[in-house]
Amino acid sequence: MRASGEMRVGGAVRAGVVVCALLAALAVAGCPGKKEKAAPPPEVTPTVNEIFQQGVDAMRGNEIDKAVMSFSLITQKAHPGAPEIPHAYFYLGLIAYRAGNMELAVQNFNAALKLDPSMDQARLSLGNAQFAAGKVDEAIASWEQLAKERPNLSSVHNNLGVAYLDRNDLDKALEHLEQTVALSPDNYRAQKNLADAYRRKGMTAEADAADRKAQVIENRMLSQHPRGPAGTAAPAGPTAEMDATPEPAAPTATP
């Protein structure tokens, strides 16, 4: 009888242990604080195309530091093996040019042209930066090459006219400036440059006629923009016609 009682007691103890274990499990399951934390979503790495577009958007919004950061990620190859984008170098050159850092501007424009020798914007701007740095002969070489490739681009003829005026080569200056106004008759800057070239050549009547044409253009522009648009009465010098932020060619490959 005693053994039987011990068996009953032992069975009860074992049953109690099982019940306690079940209760403990239920308590853990029902406690919100004991749930496992959800894994954080994986970080999404932007593509080179997306980084480039972020830079373009930042530049349009005049957020220059952000633009430089985005374009630099591309030029410094943050995505190993990704295709290089010439316009990233072009925009970095444009930013440097506007900041007055001509050495860096030339470096980036050359890098853009190395990747895409047909980029007219980069070659024109390269000459602008070289001219601004006092490297007139190098600027002439850049613009002469572009003029051969794009003979109907009025801005490059204007720039060459100004450069040859700087070199006091009046015949070549007149050749390019006359071609500029033939291609772009309403170009105020070119008309003023042409008047200057005529006057220095001793052609007073032609200079006065060019000045009158420039005045007509200016009056028309002022009537359309009473406050005076930027560049209405720009001083003689290389045109900034293509210095405005252009629409970039969209990258064709996404890593």
Name its key features:
Serine Threonine Protein Phosphatase 5, Tetratricopeptide repeat; 66% helix; 255 residues; mainly alpha; 11 helices; elongated
> What is the CATH class name of the largest domain?
Mainly Alpha
C-alpha Rg, in Å?
A: 35 Å
Number of helices: 11
Low-confidence stretches: 5-9, 11-30, 229-237, 240-255
Strands, total number:
0
Q: Percentage of helical residues?
A: 55-70%
Supply the CATH superfamily name of the largest domain: Tetratricopeptide repeat domain
Alpha-beta classification: mainly alpha
Determine the mean pLDDT: 78
End-to-end Cα distance, whole Å, is: 83 Å
The outline comes out as elongated
What series of H and E elements makes up the topology? HHHHHHHHHHH
- Return the domain count: 2
Strand content: under 5%
What does this structure look like?
This protein is an all-alpha fold. It folds into two domains: 46-135, Serine Threonine Protein Phosphatase 5, Tetratricopeptide repeat (Alpha Horseshoe), CATH 1.25.40.10; 151-244, Alpha Horseshoe (Serine Threonine Protein Phosphatase 5, Tetratricopeptide repeat). The protein is 66% helix and 0% strand. It is built from eleven helices and no strands. The protein starts with a helix and ends in a 31-residue tail after the last helix. Residues 5-9, 11-30, 229-237 and 240-255 have low confidence and may be disordered.
